[in-house]
Specification:
The chain is mainly alpha-helical. The protein has one domain. Helices cover 64% and strands 0% of the residues. The protein is built from six helices and no strands. Helix 5 packs antiparallel against helix 6. The two termini are 19 Å apart. The model has no long low-confidence stretch (mean pLDDT 88).
């Protein structure tokens, strides 16, 4: 499944079914596999926070993605995020940008 297929069914799926598809999409994305399980949970929490905007076709705004990335950068030591992890997370969030 690619992002277009996911977004095509976003409004017709129930909230829970869309979240399940969203999880399958993100966990299946090649950029996701090198992140630790704690960092995987971190990125999913960010995406889940914006599920309604994604479902409604609005997506996550560039400004919101920048804010989320800045928060991660500020807390990179606490979350044990390497520069590569931060870049991978940014690329995953950018998939949902409108």
């Amino acid at each position: 499944m690619d992002i277009q297929e996911l977004m095509a069914t976003a409004t017709s799926d129930t909230h829970e079914h869309f979240r399940k598809k969203l999880s399958e999409f993100v966990y299946g994305h090649y950029k996701y596999h090198n992140l630790s399980s704690a960092n995987q949970k971190l990125i999913m929490d960010i995406i889940y926070k914006h599920t309604d905007a994604i479902r409604n076709g609005i997506g996550i705004s560039n400004h919101t993605i920048e804010e989320e990335n800045y928060k991660l950068y500020e807390n990179r030591i606490r979350f044990n995020l390497s520069p590569e992890d931060l870049e991978d997370i940014k690329e995953i969030l950018d998939l949902f940008k409108k």
